[in-house]
């Protein structure tokens, strides 16, 4: 039985079958975490927890949701973050199943052919030679096709980079920060998700949702841990930090979490040397 003191982590997929598979794969992350440390205690599994934790983890009763949806994309950085739609194929219980994964992505370089960063686990099941990966960006009239150009290839290196297959017009971007990460650093999480609707109202359309007042809780291990709240669909979203001048920088890519008080992210700054060769 799962210890009551442990927290069940899941990647923020959009489909419950993918969540179950991904949760099992997160066991590989535990090899990167000190067993007795705070992240090690989070990565404790049981078959019972795995079979029951496929849905989005709700905040505890009486706990106010610290996230807020952005109603109108008024700041330029809002249009740098988009919805990633990935057609995937997987074999489940002997049957081939086709899904569309809904994740988040952020443009991190300027120009009509920017580098767009998301999470590797969002594209892990992408096999199609016909159906393209699509990105919906604010300010673009229709979805754009993007091509995977590089990735970490595992949950331990949970990042993926894309290029649009045709030039973007008027695209915004958020640079990656080279600043070293530290414990208690103030950050903000941003990703597309179905924000909670009033009881009986049904799910709302996916919207850009932010948690503006969270902090890094463990910067010494990989992946980096924060107390940001993120939900399914936010995978590949941005962990952001404001500079002294007030501008935003990407410091991480949302990877996994418990949907309540822990979000793990891949540090984007470690990708700067690699991205220099892709520009």
Walk me through the topology.
Blueprint: E1 10-11, H1 16-25, H2 38-42, H3 47-52, E2 68-69, E3 81-92, E4 95-107, E5 116-118, E6 133-136, E7 144-151, E8 160-164, E9 186-194, E10 206-218, E11 224-226, E12 238-242, E13 248-257, E14 263-267, H4 272-276
Give a written overview of the molecule.
This protein has 279 residues and is mostly beta strands. Helices cover 9% and strands 34% of the residues. It is built from four helices and 14 strands. The strands form two sheets. It has a six-stranded antiparallel β-barrel with strand order 9-10-11-14-13-12. Strands 3-4-5-8-7-6 form a six-stranded antiparallel beta barrel. Strand 4 and strand 5 form a beta hairpin. The longest helix is centred in the first third of the chain and has 10 residues. It is globular and about 45 Å long. The N and C termini lie far apart (49 Å). 41% of the residues are buried.
* Arithmetic mean pLDDT: 79
In percent, how helical is the residue content?
Answer: under 10%
What is the element string, with H for helices and E for strands?
A: EHHHEEEEEEEEEEEEEH
- Please report the number of helical segments: 4
- Report the C-alpha radius of gyration, rounded: 18 Å
Distance between the termini: 49 Å
Largest sheet: 6 strands, antiparallel, barrel
Low-confidence stretches: 1-7, 15-58
Helix/strand/pairing class, anyone?
Answer: mainly beta
Q: Please report which band the strand proportion falls in: under 5%, 5-15%, 15-25%, 25-35%, 35-45% or over 45%.
A: 25-35%
Outline type: globular
Number of DSSP-assigned strands: 14
Strand order of the largest sheet: 9-10-11-14-13-12
């Amino acid at each position: 039985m799962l210890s009551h003191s442990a927290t069940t982590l899941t990647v923020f997929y959009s489909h419950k079958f993918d969540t179950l598979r991904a949760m099992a794969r997160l066991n590989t992350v535990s090899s990167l975490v000190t067993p007795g440390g705070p992240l090690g205690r989070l990565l404790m599994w049981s078959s019972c927890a795995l079979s029951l934790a496929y849905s989005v983890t709700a905040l505890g009763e009486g706990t106010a949701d610290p996230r807020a949806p952005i109603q109108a994309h008024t700041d330029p950085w809002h249009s740098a973050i988009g919805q990633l739609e990935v057609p995937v194929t997987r074999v489940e219980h002997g049957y081939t199943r086709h899904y569309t994964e809904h994740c988040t992505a952020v443009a991190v370089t300027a120009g009509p052919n920017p580098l767009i960063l998301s999470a590797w686990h969002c594209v892990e099941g992408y096999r199609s030679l016909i159906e393209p990966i699509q990105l919906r960006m604010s300010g673009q009239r229709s979805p754009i096709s993007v091509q995977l150009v590089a990735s970490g290839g595992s949950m331990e290196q949970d990042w993926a980079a894309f290029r649009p297959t045709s030039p973007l017009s008027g695209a915004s971007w958020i640079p990656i920060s080279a600043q070293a990460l530290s414990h208690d650093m103030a950050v903000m999480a941003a990703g597309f998700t179905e924000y909670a609707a009033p009881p009986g109202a049904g799910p709302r359309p996916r919207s850009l949702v932010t948690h503006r007042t969270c902090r890094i809780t463990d910067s010494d291990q990989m992946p980096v841990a924060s107390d940001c709240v993120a939900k399914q669909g936010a995978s590949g979203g941005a962990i952001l930090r404001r500079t002294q001048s007030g501008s935003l920088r990407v410091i991480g890519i949302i990877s996994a979490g418990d949907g309540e008080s822990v979000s793990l992210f891949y540090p984007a700054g470690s990708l700067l040397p690699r991205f220099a060769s892709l520009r």
